[in-house]
Amino acid sequence: MSESVLPFNSYVDRFLRFLEAEKNASPHTIKNYHSDLIEFFSFLGKCSLSDINYLSIRRFLAHLKEKQFLRSTVSRKLACLKSFFKYLTREHLVSANPASGIATPKRERRLPSFLETKEVEHLIETTKGDSWEMKRDRAILEMLYSSGIRVSELVGLNEGDIDLLSSLLKVRGKGKKERIVPIGSCASDAIKEYMDITQTDSSSNSIPLFLNRSKTRLTDRSVRRIILKCAKRADLKKGISPHTLRHTFATHLLDRGADLRSVQELLGHAHLSTTQIYTHVSAKRLREAYDQAHPRA
Questions:
Q1: Residue 291 to residues 65, 277, 279: CA-CA distances in angstroms?
Q2: Average pLDDT for consecutive 10-residue bins of the chain (297 residues)?
Q3: Given 14, 34, 71, 243, the catalytic residue
Q4: Which of 11, 33, 181, 213 has the least C-beta neighbours within 10 A?
């Protein structure tokens, strides 16, 4: 079969292998890009690569807008198409990138939701108990709030990635970039209690840190369920996810005087502009405190 008549999934598979092998893309990115490309080609229906042009992609973006996708989601799907056609151009499978001239939609600058200190304490206190599951859930909440790591980074941790003596974590972030993150004494104590009750016979450092009932690695979805269960117990009135604790970590640090560069490093953000969203939260709180306290505000 010639290159020009290969089915679309063959091109997609080759592109995804390229992302993994040469771009060191994370499994999360590869999964999202795969679903984005399947969606794009399903929208187009029967056609060949040579039929796809600038207008094809504009029609797809208009379809996404009609479906009321978030701008951030549309931006990711467009980035996927740009990257895909750039790869095809490099491989001489298409003559030009039909997505290259399309501007990325401006992302919504939504202020991240976060918890107050008392709400965090209340949430963590819902995990009191002696069972290994309770100790695991407490360690998870303490870890997320103490380190600000992503849920994907949390479930990817192995026992060998944590140094309780120094209270440091080795975290594998986006693009498989590693960084060292400190954790507080409360998190260290919670993790030690959890590890003491789930001691493994193996001396391997690649044993997953957080386990499910089957003694296999916990998934992102399972952590989300745990947090929702704890939030329900705590009777929190606001929506909460693992990312809420990441937002809370960053906001509380900046509220208490941490500098933006340090917070950027701790969060593993590639660009300072990504971290700057949290300065808006702190500035808003500062303004509220001023308005409440100053006699001539």
A1: 39, 22, 18
A2: 57 93 86 94 88 94 91 91 95 92 75 87 94 96 95 94 93 85 94 87 75 92 95 90 93 88 89 81 68 71
A3: 243
A4: 213
Tell me if 104 is assigned to some domain.
Answer: no
Q: 76, 122, 170, 269: which one is catalytic? A: 269
Q: Are residues 146 and 258 in the same domain?
A: yes
Residue 102, classed as helix, strand or coil, is coil
| 294 belongs to the catalytic site | no
- Identify the CATH number of the domain in which residue 44 sits: 1.10.150.130
Range of the domain at 63: 3-90
Tokens of 153: 């980074």
Q: What is the CA radius of gyration of the chain?
A: 23
The distance from CA 123 to its chain's CA centroid, rounded to whole angstroms, is 21
Annotated active-site residue in 150, 172, 247, 252: 150
174 and 123 fall within a common domain: yes
Instruction: Specify whether 278 is catalytic.
Output: yes
Whether residues 201 and 82 share a domain: the answer is no
Residue 110's pLDDT is what?
A: 65
Residue 274 lies in a domain: yes
Q: Which of 11, 33, 145, 278 is catalytic?
A: 278
Per the residue annotation, which of 77, 136, 246, 247 is the catalytic one? 246
**182 within some domain:** yes
78 and 141 assigned to the same domain: no
Q: Residue 172, CB half-sphere, CA atoms under 13 Å: how many? A: 14
Tell me how far apart the alpha carbons of residues 253 and 13 are, in angstroms, rounded to a whole number: 42
Whole-number Å distance between alpha carbons of 104 and 230: 38
Is 150 one of the catalytic residues?
A: yes
Within-domain flag for 95: no
Point out the catalytic residue in the list 174, 179, 192, 224: 174
Are residues 16 and 78 both part of a single domain? yes
Residue 269 a catalytic site member? yes
- In tens, the pLDDT along 253-275 reads 988 888 889 999 999 888 888 88
